[in-house]
Every structure is written in structure tokens, then in C-alpha cells.
Write a structure and sequence with these properties.
This protein is about 50% helix and about 15% strand. The protein binds one RNA strand through helix 2, helix 6, strand 9, strand 10 and helix 12.
RNA sequence: GCGCCCGUAGCUCAACGGAUAGAGCACUUGACUACGGAUCAAGAGGUUACAAGUUCGAAUCUUGUCGGGCGCACCA
């Protein structure tokens, strides 16, 4: 029995109480079932009596007592007891709990998915770096977490597109081009240019491919260098993200936004909504109508579009492409954009609480042996996504970034996550998966066909088996809450708990018959439990973009 | 000055208003003729920055104070 099924049972019991008329309780739509931290409190607990008592005018413990009596009589429930101020602690009978293993194995990769967000079409935009250098650690956090958010949203039933906005327009691109050109001529890079060592590499690569570029007139040459370097750098970003297992559905160029007329179209839409005005020769959007602290310029007095104009047009364009929720994942230094972007949605006639969502990721601080490693894209002394992957591997890098909520600052010690030991939780979880796979392989080698043997769920009566089943039953609600809250770290933490439950089970319960033992129903039941565990860990790791190795 | 985020074990961090605030690392002590010990068991470690409030109940919500990070362009 899953917690969701139990909630239905509890709700039914409450309905019975209400209909019998002893107690005038209004039966809530949702009954909160939780898994008590303390195992002495049973398999599950509900606080529903506490929440209903006041409004029903009944002391909580009295209501809880009546509910407990009703529940104890329900099928699949072994006992129900009141505790504390009015909790009802519920213990399932072994068969009802064990049946879960069959359900998970049958559901396969669908176990854990849901339909809470069915019908929502979501655009998740993240990273969106300038194509003027390698991706650094701030980008890397979102590369991992943003991708995981998208996967979790999809698991909750949403239709999701991952999008990368290429900031390939504006003065930063020109500075980038000028920097590469200077390097190509062996001259010092301009003061306000890009100084990383990669600039020299780009220059060398461009000259090698097209030596004649150095003979072009200066202005032409500048453009040629800029475009060549842009192409190379973008491909480098795309390649490293592919290695990182973060695949985008759409790479959207800011230039094409302008070239396609989308910017003009977006402006027209905003004008039609009546929030655009002229002042001092510039064209403004009155974002203060919707909570921004100042109005924003769309077209400067010199006739140039601002970056903000691109932003607004891009939002309108996303909505025109059919997305009903636009999620932006931004770095901490962009938190000033939150109100602005929400106001853009409102100015376009949308609901800024429903159509747009801006998440802010706090900074990642990197230390190496306790000493901070400074990051600076312009200075060149940077830790890049590629560096991190080279040092710790894709799985450890992704997992280390995903297992913490993105909205709190994070310190990673390279010396710690470089170690391929149990210091790093990803190995702990992957090891559990490999261990289950090993047991199932051994079963196969022994010729045990557990899938086609009778499965008696009541065999799973050991406390450690109950713990493991309880953990496995949590998975769907963990995924649902991770999606709802945009917090994939919940899945990672959950997997760690589940891995612990498996290791503890494994430690206490022999799965396979020893050499001279007969195959018993208990062995079969435990193999089903193993198979269910493998499925849950596999589904969870996959949701995080982390591999689930069968051997390590 | 205004605004956003954050203060939880020695360190890095969990805990969607619930019961005795939990993990990992580090520290102490046990369990290997191993279904994979990359594991398990036990111990020690806390005034959840501080103070008031809200309620059956607060690390969580409200207000204030202190401390830290970041942001406040006709830049991109």
C-alpha cells in the first residue's frame, strides 16, 4: 500500500465518522500522511485529527481516538494508535506493505511519475551565457540543477522544453572579437577585453584554419575574428554541455530574435497593452505598474534597442510559441531582474504569478584544501565546467551540485569531491544500485526465476524490510514535491535515504539461499524487494541525469 | 539609503507548521573463511545568530536587532 492509497483509506474512515453522525467533521480533500522519523511511531502517521479538531469543536485526542478505532478495522492496516497531542500512528500489515514491491516492478520506469503538472507546457531557460568564453561554475550549477528541474517537471507530467538563450549581440561580442584579433597579432588584449588563456587558443585556431584573415582590412578583420571566435566558442559550450549530459531542446540566438522581427512584434504587443511611453527621446516600458522599482528603457535616445528590449521580446516570443509557463533560472547577481521579468509578463497582459517564474541560484564558492579559488571570467583564472568534469567526472559533479538547494550559497571543496570515495554521496547511492544489480545477477546465475515464481508479500516482515518498503513508497511524493517546489535536491537526498535503507536491509537479511539451502518463499520475496529497489534508484538517478551503473 | 538571499553540530549541509532538529565528513569503539566491507552497528557532538509575536505545536510564518553575500545603468 502506498501512502497515497493510505490517504484514501483515512479519508474513507473520516467520511464514515461524519456520516455516522457522532462527530460533525468536514472531510478535507487532502489528508496529510507522513512518514514518522521515529520508527516507533509506526509506518505512517497523520495529523488530520489535529487540523480538524478546532473547526469540529472536538478535543483533538477524542477525534483521533475515534479515527484510530475506525482505521484499525480497515483492510491492510495492522494497528492505529493515538499519540502526542492527537497524531494517529498507523502500522500496515506486512502483506499490504509488501505488495508495494510488485507494484514498483510492474510500473518500471513509470514508477514515481505523476500527473500533477499534466497539461502545463513549460519553458525552462538556463545558463544563457555569452558565447565569449568557457562556461564557469556559476553556469555549471544551473547546467546540473536546471536540467534536473526540467526532468523532474517532466516526471510530474508537464511538457517541458529546455532552452539556452545565446547572448550573441552587443558590445561584449565586439570586445570579444577585438580581444581575439589582438591576440592573433601578438598584441596585448585591450584593457576592457577578455584576458583568459583561451583567447590565445581561439586566435591560433582561427589563423590555422584561415591564414588570410590577417590580411583583411581592419574593420572587416574585426568582424571576421568575432564571427569565427563566436562559432568556435559556441561549439565548445555545446560540446561540453553534451558531455555533461545537459542537452537543450532549443538554442535561441538573440540575433535571430532581432532579424526575425520578433523584437518589433514584441514591442507592438506591449504598446497594444498600453504600458509603453516616450520620455526624453527614449521609449520606455512602465514596469512600475507591476511592482518594479523603476521604469525600463526599451529604445535608447540614439535609436538603439536595449538588452531589456530583447528580454521582453523573447518573453513574448516564448508565449507565442505556446509555453504557458516561462521559468528563468538566473544567477544571484541577477536577482534585480526578478521583479522586472515579472513586470514584463504583466505588461504583456499575462498573469505574473502564473505565466512566469524566476529562480535565483546563489553563488558556488570553490575551495581547494580550504583555500578559496577565485573565479573571474574576464581575468582568465577560472574554474570551468570542463575543469570540474575533468577532475571529478560528470556524475560526481552533477550530483554534488544537485544535492543542495540552489537558492542557498554553496561551498565545494575540490579536494573532497575529487575523491572517489564514500565521502561523496553519489558513490554511496551508485554503490547501492550496483549492489542490487549484483544480487540479481547472482540470482540469475543460480537459475532463480523470481519473476515467474509466486510472490508472497507477507514474507517481508523483517523491520529492515519494512523500512525499505516504506522508503520505496515515498518516491512518487518526493518527485511530486521536487517538481512543485522546483527542488530536485529532494530527489538526491531521498536516494541517499533509500540507499541507506537498502544497505541496512542487506546487512540484516540474506537474500539468496546459501550453498546448501533450499529456495524458500522468503528468498523470492526478497528478490522482488531488490528488484523494486533497483528500479527506484535507477529512476531517481536518471531523473538527476546521473548514471546508475550495474557494476562499479 | 532602498531591495533580494542567507545565519542550524568542529566542517559541508538537510528538515513542504509536527512528535526527542537529522545526514555525511572529522573523532571514539565494534562487526569481514565478503549474496560487492565503496557496507553495517554503537558513541560523542545543538540555547536552530538574538528578542518579541502568531497557535494545540515554530528552525520554518510576522516584526525588530545583529552578522554575511549580492544587486540597485538610455551596460550587456
Amino acid at each position: 500500500m502506498t501512502p497515497e492509497e493510505l490517504a484514501v483509506v483515512v479519508r474513507g474512515a473520516l467520511t464514515d465518522l461524519a456520516e455516522r453522525g457522532d462527530m460533525s467533521v468536514a472531510v478535507p480533500d487532502e489528508v496529510h500522511i507522513e512518514r514518522p522519523r521515529n520508527r516507533d511511531h509506526g509506518d505512517y502517521a497523520t495529523n488530520v485529527a489535529l487540523t480538524l479538531a478546532k473547526q469540529a469543536g472536538i478535543p483533538p485526542r477524542e477525534l483521533a481516538t475515534a479515527l484510530a478505532e475506525a482505521l484499525a478495522a480497515c483492510e491492510g492496516i495492522d494497528s492505529a494508535e493515538i499519540a502526542g497531542p492527537g497524531f494517529v500512528n498507523i502500522r500496515l500489515d506486512d502483506a499490504a506493505q509488501g505488495e508495494l514491491a510488485r507494484g514498483i516492478v510492474t510500473a518500471g520506469s513509470a514508477y514515481g511519475t505523476g500527473n500533477a503538472l499534466a497539461g502545463r507546457t513549460v519553458n525552462v531557460e538556463f545558463i544563457s551565457a555569452n558565447p565569449t568564453g568557457p562556461l564557469h561554475l556559476g553556469h555549471t550549477r544551473w547546467a546540473a540543477v536546471g536540467d534536473a528541474i526540467a526532468r523532474v517537471l517532466a516526471a510530474a507530467g508537464a511538457t517541458v522544453a529546455k532552452e539556452f538563450y545565446i547572448n550573441d549581440r552587443g558590445v561584449q561580442m565586439d570586445k570579444f572579437g577585438a580581444s581575439v584579433m589582438a591576440a592573433a597579432h601578438g598584441q596585448p588584449v585591450p584593457e576592457d577585453g577578455y584576458h583568459g588563456g583561451y583567447i590565445l587558443d581561439l586566435a591560433a585556431e582561427i589563423i590555422a584554419a584561415e591564414p588570410a584573415i590577417l590580411q583583411l582590412p581592419e574593420e572587416e578583420q574585426l568582424i571576421a575574428f568575432r564571427e569565427a571566435a563566436y562559432g568556435l566558442q559556441l561549439r565548445q559550450q555545446q560540446s561540453v554541455l553534451r558531455i555533461f549530459h545537459t542537452e537543450f531542446d532549443v538554442w535561441y540566438s538573440e540575433r535571430t530574435l532581432h532579424d526575425s522581427g520578433a523584437v518589433v512584434k514584441g514591442l507592438d504587443k506591449l504598446r497594444g497593452q498600453g504600458h509603453v511611453f516616450e520620455l526624453d527621446g527614449a521609449t520606455w516600458l512602465r514596469t512600475t505598474d507591476f511592482g518594479d522599482d523603476k521604469d525600463r528603457v526599451l529604445i535608447k535616445a540614439d535609436g538603439e534597442y536595449t538588452y531589456f528590449a530583447s528580454d521582453t521580446a523573447y518573453y513574448v516570443d516564448k508565449r507565442d510559441r505556446g509555453f504557458d509557463l516561462c521559468v528563468y533560472l538566473l544567477g544571484a547577481d541577477h536577482h534585480g531582474y526578478v521583479n522586472r521579468l515579472r513586470a514584463v509578463a504583466a505588461c504583456a497582459g499575462d498573469d505574473m504569478d502564473d505565466n512566469v517564474e524566476v529562480l535565483i541560484g546563489q553563488l558556488v564558492k570553490i575551495v581547494r584544501g580550504g583555500e578559496e579559488v577565485k573565479l573571474s571570467k574576464r581575468a582568465g583564472n577560472i574554474v570551468t565546467l570542463e575543469d570540474l568534469v575533468d577532475e571529478v567526472g560528470v556524475d560526481a559533479a552533477r550530483y554534488s551540485l544537485i544535492r543542495y538547494p540552489a537558492d542557498s550559497p554553496l561551498t565545494l571543496d575540490l579536494e573532497v569531491i575529487t575523491q572517489r570515495t564514500s565521502d561523496n554521496p553519489v558513490f554511496y547511492v551508485q554503490y547501492a544500485h550496483a549492489r542490487v544489480c549484483s544480487v540479481l545477477r547472482n540470482a540469475e546465475d543460480l537459475g532463480i526465476d523470481w519473476r515467474n515464481s509466486d510472490f508472497d508479500p507477507a514474507q517481508l516482515s523483517h523491520p529492515r524490510e519494512g523500512e525499505l518498503l516504506g522508503a520505496l513508497g515515498q518516491f512518487p511524493r518526493i518527485v511530486a514535491s521536487a517538481a512543485e517546489l522546483r527542488e530536485p535536491h529532494r530527489v538526491a537526498r531521498y536516494l541517499e535515504d533509500t540507499a541507506t535503507a537498502y544497505h541496512r536491509f542487506y546487512d540484516a537479511c540474506r537474500v539468496l539461499p546459501r550453498g546448501d539451502e533450499q529456495l524458500e518463499p522468503e528468498h523470492i520475496a526478497r528478490l522482488w524487494l531488490c528488484a523494486a529497489t533497483r528500479q527506484v534508484i535507477y529512476n531517481g538517478l536518471t531523473m538527476l541525469g546521473v548514471s546508475a551503473p550495474e557494476r562499479m
